[in-house]
Fold each of these.
Amino acid sequence: MIAISKAVLMPYDVADHTNPQDDGTVTVSYQNGEVLSVQPDGSFQRRPEGTNGIYERGMPTPQGLIYCPDGAHAWLVPWAPKVPQ
């Protein structure tokens, strides 16, 4: 069995780069230095440059980045390491 998205087009933010962390996770930085922060309800926020708490660390997998900020819920964030310019 496979899962197929019903959404034909999904908007994406373009990030600048990922920052590897010592525990195998990464943080995602935008061009202005802000960092992606995935909240326990699955919403996205941005935090100041250098922030790397539990809400900012995602585990890279072939399916995307997995965030588990509260230990009870996991959020899969699709990502593409490269995008067309």
Amino acid sequence: MEQTQFERICDLLGEVRDNQKTQLEHQAQALALQREQAELARRQFEKAKALQERAEALQERSAGLMDSGRKVFAIVVPIIAFLILVLVVLMFWR
């Protein structure tokens, strides 16, 4: 009877060892997957950061263009108005 119990205990210990080995393999796979996901998230963050920087630079450039446009508009509109006034005066002066 002791021999069968000993064999049973050996079998159970073997199963425990096998299960632990399987569990360690699954944990290793899970860690590898987590590393891949972390790397993917890091790359996506870097891309988002670069895109944000490009967007900010574009907004600054657009703001500069708008500023220049306002200055040109402030100069050109009075000149056009003056030229129209001169044209009207010349048309009715004859």
